[in-house]
Structures are given as structure tokens and as C-alpha cells.
TrEMBL record:
UniProt cross-references to InterPro entries, sorted A to Z: DNA_helicase_UvrD/REP (IPR000212), P-loop_NTPase (IPR027417), UvrD-like_ATP-bd (IPR014016)
List of residues binding ATP: A28, G29, A30, G31, S32, G33, K34, T35
Name the UniProt record assigns to this protein: DNA 3'-5' helicase II
Domain UvrD-like helicase ATP-binding: 7-278
Gene3D superfamilies the record matches: P-loop containing nucleotide triphosphate hydrolases
GO molecular function terms attached to this record: 3'-5' DNA helicase activity; ATP binding; DNA binding; hydrolase activity
Classification lineage: Bacteria, Pseudomonadati, Pseudomonadota, Alphaproteobacteria, Sphingomonadales
Amino acid sequence: MMLKRIETEADKKVRACLDEKRSFALIAGAGSGKTSSLIDALARIRETDGARLRRDGQRVACITYTKRATEVIRTRLGFDELYLVSTLHSFLWGQLAGFQEDIRRVLIEDRLPAQIAKAGEKVTKAGGHTQEGQRQQAKIIRFQAELKDLQLVPRFTYEDSEFSNYAKGELGHPDIIEIGSYLLRTNRVFRRITALRFPYIFVDEAQDTFKGIVEGLNLVCAGEGLPLVGYFGDPWQQIYDGRAGDFAPPPGGETITKTENFRCSVSVIAFLNAFRKDVEQYPAGDNKKRQGRVAVRLVRAEKGLGKRNTYTEEQVGRALEHMDNALSAWGWKDRDDVMKLLLARQMIARRLGFSALNDLFNDGRMASSRATDAFEEGSHFLLTPFLSTICPLLRAKEEGQPHRVNEVLRRESPAFATDGENANRSLRQMLEASKAAIDDLHKHWTTQTVGEILRHSAKTRLINVSDRLREHLAREPRAEVYDETLHAQEKGDWLADAFFAMKPDTIAPYTKYILENSAFSTQHGVKGEEYDRVLVLYDDTEAKWNVYNFNKMLTPDTCGVPTDGQLDKSRKLAYVSFSRAEDELGIILFTPNPERAKAEMMSRFAMREEQISIDS
Ligand SMILES: Nc1ncnc2c1ncn2[C@@H]1O[C@H](COP(=O)(O)OP(=O)(O)OP(=O)(O)O)[C@@H](O)[C@H]1O
């Protein structure tokens, strides 16, 4: 909680850049108050140049990463129309919508040929006779037909959807990024118009924006004077693939480093400084008075005895016992304000009661790594109807909240959308229909399988059904026994079949976990958050070996040197996790050699003997 605002050196430098009309990039470590710096900068422009901008019909653009951030910033600026605060997609579409003929040209010359080529590569990889090969082949045929139809599309639209239908002129999220990058790169008029509309462009969380967009905005703002672009972000907090990571202003711009930390206690900052060498932070607010604590617990790792060297159920249980031991040792056992950050969902799943679902989506025979990732993010197409509609509806019913039921129905259910077929139904009719629909859904939920529930919900148009889900619901279950050599490319069929055959009881805790804050989170899920006490648990047996390796990242002398990729990914994720702690940070590391790891961590991270304990 911010008590009083302190103007920092970095804020002064940003102010100087604004006054001199120079582009800049503010690299601000964790807890440094990026949002405050951004708001200050936006407000400064209002003071110095606001009247002129309004007179000339120009605005200040602020591109945010999430819709939630958009709301926060708009509110803090008093909803002033001088500013256009929007997510990247909506900002780009605002600029692209007027360039209809250019959109058509980019789709014809670049976007569709690129997608056809990509599908072609997948056909070659999968083999034309496999189901995946045929699926990709069908995609190529569809794209080719859409390519022909593109000439006839009267108008291109974008409705904030993931999916595209080019023949109907409907664009999806990825199209907006690709077309936006392409036009910024190649079309001088597009750049000129963007610059005229927005002499000042700010990008929040710049590390997570797309490379092509940073390059494009730098072209828009090349040269001296306005337009200028200001990036705010932290390269060490870029944890998703394909994003800008290291961002820099256009040539001539200034890179400013913000070294304050207003969030973390003295001990946590000292540890962060030992961990990350490019920014030396200091406690800059009331946090200077908080000593806090950093403690490490080293546990002797067991070799995974389960499938693919992962833990068996019994071993997961033992690992959880070690976690409880550490909680007791740190005096955290009975506290409910300890945020536990686990990399492996298996342990969270076991604690919260969705192991069966978790096991299914982590079973490499049926789930591709993409499917596992989507499960972890809560974006898998088999699960989204439950996350967005079915479980929220059942929950609202259970809690006796008819208004909430109606809200979900109106927002998510085609059968209850207030336009179209329902436009003429009275409120009473709608309420009666919704009650009947929910009672019916509840009956299915308690007696039927997941597949039956989905089919019922699709038939009654209670849920939005994606094309992929529709295909799976419509086909017969695969009769063959799964064979890796024959079916690897079609494993999604077996995944869907197994999912459809499940009882729904493990889905409710999963959706609750994904949708609500609980005392557990994955390490990816806590970006931007802060908690009094944070426990971070590393167990490489459960991690994706080729992607992360926390033992090698933290103790390379004990465990061997990580690959560049492992080092980069593991340390960014660790930095995000560690820096969430306001007061106390506890790290549990399962290591093959606790004694050596202890000595190495003490010297590497300037830790004292009593900070590191061993539980063998
Ligand atoms: N100038 C300031 N003076 C006093 N407190 C501040 C100031 N700026 C930010 N804070 C407080 O410091 C904490 C961290 O701020 P904020 O969450 O904006 O940091 P951040 O840079 O976005 O961090 P991260 O990148 O780690 O998510 C918040 O509790 C905020 O209220």
C-alpha cells in the first residue's frame, strides 16, 4: 500500500526526456513503482503540452498489457479524454480499421501465404496420411479458398476474438499483431498517421509486447522531437515466449534505470541484488524500516520413480511433507497469509483435489506440451466452457445468486444473449428460461460424464462451442488402443475421449483454482502481485527438464552449468517469484547434494549460515 509519493531520480530523468521531447526506455526492477512513474509521465504531458494537443485534436497513447491495467490507469488519470489508454490489440485495431485496403493486401501478400506455408510444413512433418496431416491439409484448402474470397470481403472486422474467418472478413488476435507489425514496418503513410494522432506513445510492460511492434513504434518515433515513445518495463520479468524481452528506445533515445524498491524488505532486496546484477536496488519507502527475512531450505532430492522419471503419488506426498516441515521451521505453519508458489501443478492439484484432471493433461501419451501449457494457463479448448460458463453458473446457483446466473448467461451463452432471438423476450420469460436451464445443467452435472455435460450444453446453446470442440464432440470415440508410432500426431483425440469419459468432480476444484486467488499459485501466475510472505518451491524432478533447471541456475558448481536457455528462463521466473515478497521470502530447493548446495548458495548469494537449513 502506497503511503506517500516520493519523486525518484528516474522520474526526474523521464521528465527531462519529456520536456526535451526525446524517446526513452525506463528499465525498472521489481517493486520500483513502474505504474507510478508511468502515471507521472502521462500527467506531465497534460501540464506541459495538454492544451496544444487538445486544440490540434491529438492524443497521448498509453498501451497496456492487460484490460485490468487499462482500467487502473484510466481511473488514475481521471478518465481524461486527452489519453487513449488501451491494450495493444485494441490500440492497433483503432489504427488499422481505417486501412481496409491495406489489410486486404497484407492478408493476400503475406499473412495467408505464411499460414499456408506453415500448415504445409506441418503436413510434411506429420505425413499426409495421418489425421494431423489431413487436418493441416484441410486447413490449407480452407486458407486457399479464403484467399480467393478475400477480394470480395466488403469490410474487415475485429471483435476481440482469438479466431479468424477471413472469408467473412473476421480477424483474430494474432492477425492484429501481424498486420500491425507489417504495416508499421512497410507503410510510411500508416506510420505518419499514427504519429499525427499520437505525438506521445507510451508502452507499459514493454518486455511483454511483441518484437515487431517495438521495432515498428521505433520507426514511427525515429529522429528528433515528436513523436516520442516511452517504454516502461523490466527485461527480467519477461516470462512468456515470443515477446520483446530486451526493449530499447529508437537511436538517440535514453535508457533510464530505476533503482528504487518500494515493496520488499531490506533482507529481500539484499537477496535480489545478489541474484540480479544489472540493477542494484535500495529500499526507498517505508520498507527501509522492515528488516524482513530470506530463508532457504535444502531438501535431498529423490529420484523420480514414476512415469518419465517424475514422482509417484507417494513421492509427491513425501515432497509435501518436506514443505510442511519448512513451514513449521519458519513459523509459518498456521498462518494463512503465506503465498506458496509451485512450479509443478501436480502438488497443487493434489492439495486442492484435481489430481485426476491434472494427471490427464500431464500424460505425455495423450497431451502435447502445448495442451499441458494450455491446461496450466486455463486456456485449453476442452476446459474453457467449464471455466467461462458451466462452473461459474453452477457456483452462482449453489450460492443462491440469481443475478450472477443471469450475468454469466447473458455474457457467455448464445441462447441467452440479449440481442438476436432474445430481443423480444420479456425479462420474466428470460428469468424463467434461465432457471430451467440451470436446474437442468445441475441435474446433468450430478449424474453424467464430462462429455455428456458438454454435449448437452452445446445442444442447448448454453456454451460457446469452438470449432475444435465441436469436431471432437461430433466424432465417435477412437476405438484403437493408442499407439505412439501411429497416432502421435492425433493424440488430442485420445485426450478428448479420456476427458469426455471423466466424471466432473475434479473439474470444479480446478476451475476454482484457476479463477480465484488461493494460497497456492504457479510461479507464472503471480506477475505484478505482491504478498507479505512468499514460499517458492523448486523441484526439478517435477519441472520441465529441458526448459527450466533451478538447481543448475542457483548452484551450477554443485549441479552443473545450465544451458543458456535454461539459465535465462529459470532466472527470470525466479526473479519474478522472489520479488513478490514484501516481508519474508522462503525458498525450498530439492537438491541432490544439500551440503554442497548450502556452501555454494552462501557464497553466491551472500547468505549467512543460519539462513540456510537442511532437511534430508
Ligand atoms: N513513488 C513511490 N513512493 C512510495 N511508494 C511507492 C511509490 N511507487 C510505488 N510505490 C509502492 O511500491 C509498491 C510497488 O509498486 P508497483 O507494484 O507499481 O511496482 P512495479 O514496478 O510494478 O513492480 P513489479 O514489476 O515487481 O510488479 C506498491 O505497493 C506501490 O504502492
